[in-house]
Amino acid sequence: MNQSVAPKINIGGTGISQVTLSETMDLFDQWIQQGEKKRVCVTPVNCVVWANKNAPLQQLYNSADLTLCVGVPLIWAAKLLKQGTLTRVTGLDLLPQYIQRCHQKGHTQFFLGAKEGVAALLQQQSEDRYPGIQIKGVYSPPFAATFSEEENEKMIAMINAVKPDILWVSLTAPKQDYWIQEHLHRLDVHIAIGVGGAFEVAAGLIDRAPVWMQKNGLEWFYRLYKEPRRLFKRYLVEAPAFIPIVMKQWWKGLGARC
């Protein structure tokens, strides 16, 4: 498990990084300044569930430089397992706040993914809000379960032509994480991070849950209300499988202490 950047708490076999939002952004600044190359995963509960039964996916998350805590249930699980404290660091928070930091620090960015027009809209809004911000490119690839070799080469060439400090990838998890892992060695970037649907939210196309719902682990309910057809399976079928995974781990730990 890659813990060279920050300690990771084992939840269902997946290591979740013990970092805050501000610490994450400070690390990004440091990596860019020092010319490093890092891979960051924004990891929701359903991905931890999938990784529990998918060794390659679990290795992908465990080998990442940072595996960020998205869901409040991960925080609750860490407390139950008495392994330490986790802080929620979502792509929905990180993306807009680090866009502002990029403007302040002069970091360059590239937006890859989301539906046609979304990344371009986010670029335009960012440039209007932060005059002089350096967003070097945007591209929304055609929807596909896996991209063709030609499409992959096109995306890599577009990114490398402008050499952004940070590459934001919005291809849904874990597709975005697999794509980054497979191609990072060829990408001329310092940070590559998958942020799911954060482009749409940052661009104002999808409303975010009220803060009180975010803090109390109910953001999923708000998102399900907004997009029931797309998110029904994720939140009402896949996510509940997290409970037995954690309870099994807790029970094993209890037995080891007895």
Q: Would you write up a description of this structure?
A:
By secondary structure, this protein is α/β, with parallel strands linked by helices. The two termini are 27 Å apart. It is globular. The protein has 2 domains: 137 residues, no CATH class; 102 residues, Response regulator (Rossmann fold, 3-Layer(aba) Sandwich), CATH 3.40.50. Strands 4-3-8-7-5-6 form a 6-stranded parallel β-sheet, with helices on both faces. Strands 1-2 form a two-stranded antiparallel sheet. The model has no long low-confidence stretch (mean pLDDT 93). It is built from 13 helices and 8 strands.
Which descriptors apply to this entry?
alpha/beta, Rossmann fold, 13 helices, 8 strands, 2 domains, 6-stranded parallel β-sheet, two-stranded antiparallel ribbon, 258 residues, 52% helix
Please write out the topology.
Layout: E1 8-11, E2 14-17, H1 21-34, E3 38-43, H2 45-52, H3 55-63, E4 66-69, H4 72-80, H5 91-105, E5 108-113, H6 118-129, E6 134-139, H7 149-162, E7 166-170, H8 175-183, E8 191-194, H9 198-202, H10 211-215, H11 219-226, H12 228-238, H13 242-257
Parallel strand pairs: 3-4, 3-8, 5-6, 5-7, 7-8
Antiparallel strand pairs: 1-2
Helix pairs in contact: 1-5, 2-3, 11-12
Computed over alpha carbons, the radius of gyration is: 18 Å
Helix percent reads 40-55%
* Biggest β-sheet: strands ordered side by side in the sheet: 4-3-8-7-5-6
Task: Report the principal-axis shape.
Answer: globular
Strand fraction: 15-25%
The arrangement of helices and strands along the chain is: EEHEHHEHHEHEHEHEHHHHH
Q: What is the count of DSSP helices, taking H or I runs of 4+ residues?
A: 13
Number of domains: 2
Strand segment tally: 8
Structural class by SSE content:
alpha/beta
Q: Whole-number average pLDDT?
A: 93
